Amino acid sequence: MPAAQNLVLLALALLAGVATAFQPGINARFALVSGARVHGGVANFAVGLACVLLATLVMRAGVPDHARLAQGPWWMWLGGVLGAFFVLTAIVIVPKVGAANYMAAAIAGQLIASALIDHFGLMGLAAHAFTPGRALGIALIAAGVACVRWL
Predict the structure, then answer these.
(1) Among the four 43, 64, 83, 137, which has the fewest Cβ within 10 Å?
(2) Nearest C-alpha neighbor of 128 from the set 105, 137, 141
(3) Is the dihedral of CA 126, 77, 90, 20 positive or negative?
(4) How far apart are CA 89 and CA 24, in angstroms?
(5) CA–CA separation, 56 vs 54, rounded Å?
(6) Exposure pattern of 43-55 as b/e (b: 16+ CB <10 Å)?
């Protein structure tokens, strides 16, 4: 992949991280104003579904082939469950510990899980060895989580 394209993709990932940092607070505020925490999650997924459907139309992606979907592994349907877990835990936890504490812990968890996914090539992804550099990076993130939480 050309370096410029790689930079664009990493910049988009950075923007996704920025958006993810705002999401728990937005959902928690919605939950507070609506009167029930779960309403923040409902709003999150209802608006998100509308956005993804619009993107599907704009991209002219069409309807998926049911025969192909039936050939996929059962666990490929868990993405929505995991997204709901993230949103619902954030709605409950962010008002209690703050956005920075929640996101620091979430990012640490993401890096640990991502390193395992990469190392073992889980979910059909290409394997990337767990190196001392990656271990150091995760340790530094864990130290950052501790600093954000207790300092």
Answers:
(1) 64
(2) 137
(3) positive
(4) 9
(5) 5
(6) bbbeeeeeeeeee
The three-state secondary structure class of 143 is: helix
Q: From CA 7, how far away is CA 140, in angstroms rounded?
A: 23
Q: pLDDT per residue over 12-59, tens digit each? A: 998 998 998 899 889 889 988 999 989 989 999 999 999 999 999 999
117 φ/ψ angles, rounded to the nearest 5 degrees: -60, -45
One-letter-per-residue 3-state SS of 20-66: HHHHHHHHHHHHHHHCCHHHHHHHHHHHHHHHHHHHHHHCCCCCCCH
In the chain, what is the greatest distance between 2 CA atoms, to the nearest angstrom?
54
Token pair for 3 = 């370096």
